[in-house]
Structure formats: C-alpha cells, structure tokens
Write a structure and sequence with these properties.
Length: 409
C-alpha cells in the first residue's frame, strides 16, 4: 500500500506538470495571435492613410490653391500624427511582445524548476525505496541469524543434556562399582581387623612367638595390600575404555562450546592423572601402624592409620588446587558457575593410593576441597585457600573443619 500511494502521488504530480505546460503553450499561442491581429490592424490603417493622402494630392483648381495648401498641411500633420500614433502602437506592441516573452520565459523557468523539483522528489523517493529495501534485507538477515543462533543454542543445549545424561549414567555406574568396592574393602578390612585381633590375642598368650607373629602379620598385610593393588589395577583397566569414550565426547562438547581454557585444564588434569598412575606402579608397601586416627563424615566417625589420615588431607588439598584451576578456566571462558560439571570433580581420583582408605572416602573429601577451590578460582579470591610455593593450597582451619581429624592414642 505504501508503494501504491507513492506511485499515485508521482502520477498526480506528473499530471499537474503537463497541465501547466499546456496552459503555458496556450497562452503563448494567444499572445502570438494578438500580435498578428495588431500588425494587420496597423497595416490596414497605414493603407487607408495612404489612399487618403493620394486623393488629397490630386491637382485642384487654380482658385483653390491656398485651400489646397492648407489641406496639404493638415494632411501632413495628420500623417505625422498617424506616424507617431503608429510608432507609439508599434512601441506598445513591442513592449507587449517583450513582456509576453518575459512572461513566457518566467513560465518556462518555473516549469523547469518544477520539473527539476519533481526529479529531485522522484530521486528522493527512489532513495527512500532503496533504503527501505536495504533495511528489509538487513532485518531479514538479522532474523535469519537469530533463527540460526537459536537453532545452534538449542542444538548445544540438546548436546549438553545428552552429555549430562551420559555423565549421570556413568556416575551412577561408577557409584555402584564404588559401593561394591567399598563393601568388599570394608569386608576385607573387617576380616583383617579380626585376624589382627586374633593374632594379638595369640601374641598375648604366646609371648615366645611374638616376633614370628609380627613377621607373619606384616607378610599378611603385604599380601592383602598386593591383592588390593591388583584389584585396583583391574578396576582401573575396566574403567579405562569407558573413561576414554567419555573423555572423547566431553572434548568434542568443549570444542563446540569454545571453552578452550576448560579444555586445557582437562588435558592438564589428565596428564597429572597419568603421572600419578605411573607413580603408583612403583609404590611399595610399608606398615604404617595401627588405626589410631579417626575422621568425621556425615555425623559418623571412621578410623584409619597415620598414612590414611595424610592421604585424606592430601585429597582435600589436591581437590582445592584442581578446583581453583577449573573455576579460573570457566571464568576465563565466560561460562556459568558449575563445579560439578568439571572433569576433575567427576573423576576425583587424583592422588589415590588404594590403601587404608576406600576410593569413595577419598573422592568425597577430594570433592569437598574441589568445590571450595572452584569458588575461589571462579570469583578470583582467596576465601578458602592461598597461593604459595608455585601452587594453591587450602587453609589449615578449613581443612580441619572439613575433615575433623583426631588422634586416638
């Protein structure tokens, strides 16, 4: 409708311009007819005066010569007057013609100005139409870009939901395995404790065999440790393929989300995890004494020895450092606050030695430190820890609040 209105306005202006031109041409024709009529009238008057002059110049009677002289004089006067009148009419006619020419030129100039103005108006309308088309094109492009971005966001959201579902499934399977492992380890520890108690009772009854029993106890503990190490290696091999598939999917997701800093953190964590596995292959068993430490979790107390207590402390401290780097990476990627989504939080096995403490216990305290470190790294602060000796460590007061470690004797 806007374009039709503009076209109608253009036609109306063109009609007005053509009408003005026709009126100008008609006025010009009337002026030229009036000029020809005045010229004809002047020619007729001049011929009539010439005829009168010829009649008056005919020879008269000798008696009438004075009268004829007077008549000739009057005729000459009339002729002069007629010439003056003719010259005046000619001047008036010339003035009228010049005025008509000036009027015609002015009308022509006005028409030319109107035509130029019309051309300028047409050009402005064309420019407005072109600008309107360009705006329409830009709007269409922006709308398409918005639709494409919305589709990409929806696709990323769908991928994230699928990835989260896979993570939940994987965590559920891993938790089930950890529960089974924990039950097995607890049963083994209970059996070991009963065997140790029985041996201690026998030692008290047979003082003479105390040294031999102590050697057998150390040998038994070493065999149990070797069995647990073998079981741990087998569980690690079983989880290796599933972990590699999960890591590949997570790496593709981070690349699609353009979270390059979080991807670099994940690669760093995996490298530290591989070095830690190499260290465990060279680790040797040592007897760290009886269970004379206890720690608090969920309102209950659990016992361990000196090495287990130190390992739980390392779990909290290493978890804080890994969480700080993960939170810092999400902040640099402008990603939302989500410590549970980081791979270090989901794995939580870095530094675990598979002895004196179950994996589930270690992962619990590792994640407690990870959450606090992630918060400090994401908000770039030092509420729960500090930077020292080239790394990040949790504060001693916070570690004591989380672990609640106590020496029994």
């Amino acid at each position: 409708m806007k374009y039709l209105k503009q076209i109608g306005l253009t036609l109306a202006m063109s009609t007005l311009v053509l009408g003005a031109s026709a009126i100008t041409n008609a006025q010009g024709r009337r002026g030229r007819g009036e000029e020809r009529r005045q010229e004809n009238q002047a020619a007729r008057e001049q011929r009539q005066e010439e005829r009168q002059n010829r009649r008056q110049e005919q020879p008269a009677q000798p008696a009438q010569q004075p009268q004829q002289a007077q008549q000739q004089q009057r005729s000459e006067q009339r002729r002069q007057e007629q010439q003056r009148g003719s010259q005046e009419r000619q001047q008036r006619w010339e003035q009228q013609r010049q005025q008509q020419q000036r009027d015609s030129q002015e009308r022509q100039q006005r028409w030319e100005q109107q035509r130029q103005q019309q051309q300028r108006n047409d050009g402005q309308r064309e420019q407005q139409i072109q600008q309107s088309r360009e705006r329409e094109g830009r709007w269409q492009q922006q709308r398409q870009d918005q639709i494409r971005q919305s589709q990409e966001r929806e696709q990323r959201s769908q991928q994230q939901r699928q990835q989260q579902q896979q993570n939940r499934d994987w965590d559920r399977q891993r938790q089930q395995q950890q529960q089974q492992q924990q039950q097995q380890s607890e049963q083994q520890r209970r059996q070991q404790w009963e065997r140790d108690r029985d041996r201690n009772d026998r030692d008290r009854n047979w003082n003479g065999r105390r040294d031999d029993n102590r050697d057998r106890d150390n040998n038994s503990r070493q065999r149990n440790w070797q069995q647990e190490q073998q079981q741990r290696a087998e569980r690690y091999r079983q989880d290796s393929q599933r972990r590699q598939s999960y890591l590949y999917q997570r790496q593709r997701l981070l690349e699609q989300q353009r979270r390059l800093n979080q991807l670099r953190y994940q690669q760093r964590y995996l490298e530290r995890l591989r070095r830690d596995q190499s260290r465990l292959q060279q680790w040797r068993y040592n007897d760290y004494g009886p269970y004379n430490y206890r720690y608090r979790r969920g309102g209950s107390y659990y016992e361990t020895n000196r090495y287990g207590a130190e390992m739980l402390q390392r779990a909290i401290n290493d978890g804080y450092e890994e969480g700080f780097y993960a939170g810092q990476a999400d902040r640099q990627d402008s990603y939302g606050y989500n410590p549970q989504e980081a791979y270090g939080y989901q794995d939580a096995s870095y530094g675990y030695d598979a002895y004196y403490v179950d994996l589930s216990e270690y992962q619990y305290y590792f994640r407690e430190g990870f959450r606090r470190g992630y918060e400090d790294g994401y908000y770039s602060r030092s509420q729960y820890g500090r930077y020292s000796n080239g790394g990040y460590s949790i504060l001693g007061t916070i570690l004591e609040q989380v672990l609640g470690l106590q020496l029994l004797n």
